[in-house]
């Protein structure tokens, strides 16, 4: 029995249309691929009956049956409830890509021209298919009113199931989709990325606050607004509002600032650290900023001599949490090239590693005398490496600025008589330099002006 014979009389052409659509998309159109049509008819009945099914019953359908449902939604033959799109997360973009290849290719080209990645374009196309399924139109037939209404429905649905991360991903994909649709001519205005409107919650918090406490806080904000930046006023208002919310919920006896005591602020610190933030709880930096704003508030109204001022010191320096900054990268213990190779032999920079220590002392006695005098490199004679003083003091040869000094012993010069005695003792003629041996070939070659190749 074929799938077409099991379809109701009113919709008997849909199985053949589904089969032709699969064949045109280059997909399987044989009997196993059409089994989802028969299952849909036996378990659901029609597209209108599928719409009123519960989300659990819709997800309980087989994969082939859900593939047929996706085809109905993508081609505009059925309307999808918003709860099905949020809970089941059907891959309508994949189905729409197979059945509308030309429209998908144009959409991908436009997204790539705007600089979006392939993953971003895929998410945008899937969202566009979902918006079309909400209004029973193909993806390329979506207009601006449909985008606005669908965005409101999807945001409300994600907020109902408390899927905060999925809601943020939806906002990002929706903003990028609106940019792409603007450049394709579907949307007339360039979208703007706006955060959620929290003005109603702020007004409610100030309305529920005690009258005197709210009046003092607003008077302070009006004064500092004359000299501080608007962003600073926003942070100060948020810090004061959180203190007011805490007092309204946990300490209703606090009606004014003068009623605050140290124990109230200690409980407020614990309550503030447990408040939700972007990644779990509030960051320590945010907590420190809130406490800092409140401390400035208490100090200023006390200095200004207001009647509604705290009667004691409520916050101290030790109340701010310790901010643990990421540690800096470790200092390299040895310069580049000093690491041994795989056979244990020292690298080509090993000699430089030995020479570039912060303070290399080769003559302890001379270095100790120089350092005990407190003289720096500029106060010492003979900074040049070739200068050798007559005494036995040390020479400090600076290597690089900021890297330290290298202390090496001085080599005092001998007198002419001492040099003559040394030559006679060694049997060296008078024309030979002291300290050189004519029997060494490289020194003889150097005196004769020729080059001698050393052999290992």
Question: How does the SSE layout of this entry go?
Answer:
Layout: H1 14-24, H2 35-43, H3 47-51, H4 55-59, H5 63-74, H6 82-87, H7 92-99, H8 101-113, H9 118-134, H10 144-160, H11 164-184, H12 199-208, H13 211-224, H14 230-250, H15 262-273, E1 276-277, E2 280-281, H16 284-303, H17 350-355, E3 359-361, H18 364-373, E4 395-400, E5 404-408, H19 416-426, H20 441-448
Parallel strand pairs: 3-5
Antiparallel strand pairs: 1-2, 4-5
Helix pairs in contact: 2-5, 5-7, 7-9, 8-9, 9-10, 9-11, 10-11, 12-14, 13-14, 14-15, 14-16
Q: What does the model show?
A:
The protein is mainly alpha-helical and 456 residues long. Helix content is 52%, strand content 4%. It has three domains: 4-184, no CATH class; 203-319, no CATH class; 358-370 and 393-412, no CATH class. It has 20 helices and five strands. The strands form two sheets. It has a three-stranded mixed β-sheet, with no helix packed on it. Strands 1-2 form a two-stranded antiparallel ribbon. Helix 2 (35-43) crosses helix 5 (63-74). The N and C termini lie far apart (94 Å).
List its traits.
single chain; 456 residues; mainly alpha; 3-stranded mixed β-sheet; two-stranded antiparallel ribbon; disordered N terminus
What's this entry about, in short?
With 456 residues, the chain is mainly alpha-helical.
In percent, how much strand structure appears in the residues?
A: under 5%
* Unreliable sequence segments: 1-11, 351-411, 432-445
3D shape: flat
What is the count of DSSP helices, taking H or I runs of 4+ residues? 20
Number of strands: 5
Main beta sheet: 3 strands, mixed
Overall helicity: 40-55%
Straight-line distance between termini? 94 Å
């Amino acid at each position: 029995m074929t799938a077409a014979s099991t379809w109701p009389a009113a919709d008997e052409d849909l199985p053949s249309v589904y089969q032709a659509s699969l064949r045109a998309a280059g997909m399987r159109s044989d009997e196993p691929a059409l089994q989802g049509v028969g299952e849909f008819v036996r378990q659901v009945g029609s597209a209108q009956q599928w719409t009123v099914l519960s989300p659990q019953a819709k997800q309980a359908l087989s994969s082939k049956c859900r593939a047929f449902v996706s085809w109905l939604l993508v081609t505009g033959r059925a309307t999808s409830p918003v709860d099905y799109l949020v809970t089941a997360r059907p891959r309508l973009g994949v189905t729409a890509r197979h059945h509308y290849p030309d429209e998908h290719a144009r959409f991908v080209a436009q997204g790539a021209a705007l600089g979006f990645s392939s993953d971003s374009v895929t998410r945008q196309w899937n969202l566009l298919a979902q918006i079309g399924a909400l209004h029973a139109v193909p993806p390329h037939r979506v207009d601006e009113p449909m985008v606005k209404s669908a965005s409101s429905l999807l945001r409300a649905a994600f907020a109902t199931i408390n899927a905060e991360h999925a809601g943020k991903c939806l906002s990002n994909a929706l903003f990028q989709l609106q940019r792409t649709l603007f450049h394709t001519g579907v949307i007339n205005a360039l979208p703007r990325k706006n955060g959620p409107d929290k003005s109603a919650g702020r007004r409610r918090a100030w309305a529920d606050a005690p009258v005197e406490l709210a009046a003092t806080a607003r008077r302070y904000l009006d004064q500092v607004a004359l000299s501080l930046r608007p962003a600073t006023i926003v942070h100060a208002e948020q810090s004061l509002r959180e203190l007011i919310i805490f007092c309204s919920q946990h300490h209703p006896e606090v009606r004014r600032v003068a009623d605050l005591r140290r124990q109230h602020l200690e409980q407020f610190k614990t309550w503030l650290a447990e408040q939700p933030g972007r990644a779990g709880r509030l960051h320590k930096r945010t907590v420190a900023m809130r406490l800092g704003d409140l401390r400035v508030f208490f100090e200023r109204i006390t200095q200004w001599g207001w009647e509604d001022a705290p009667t004691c010191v409520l916050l101290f320096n030790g109340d701010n949490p310790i901010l643990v900054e990421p540690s800096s990268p470790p200092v390299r213990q040895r310069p580049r090239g000093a690491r041994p190779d795989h056979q244990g032999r020292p690298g080509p920079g090993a000699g430089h590693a030995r020479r570039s220590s912060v303070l290399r002392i080769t003559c302890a006695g001379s270095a100790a005398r120089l350092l005990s005098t407190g003289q720096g490199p500029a106060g010492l004679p003979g900074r040049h490496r070739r200068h050798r003083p007559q005494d036995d003091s040390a020479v400090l040869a600076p290597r690089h600025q900021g890297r330290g000094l290298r202390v090496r012993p001085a080599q005092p010069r001998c007198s002419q008589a001492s040099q003559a005695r040394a030559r006679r003792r060694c049997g060296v003629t008078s024309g030979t330099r002291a300290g050189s041996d004519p029997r060494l070939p490289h020194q003889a070659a150097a005196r004769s002006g020729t080059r001698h190749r050393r052999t290992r």
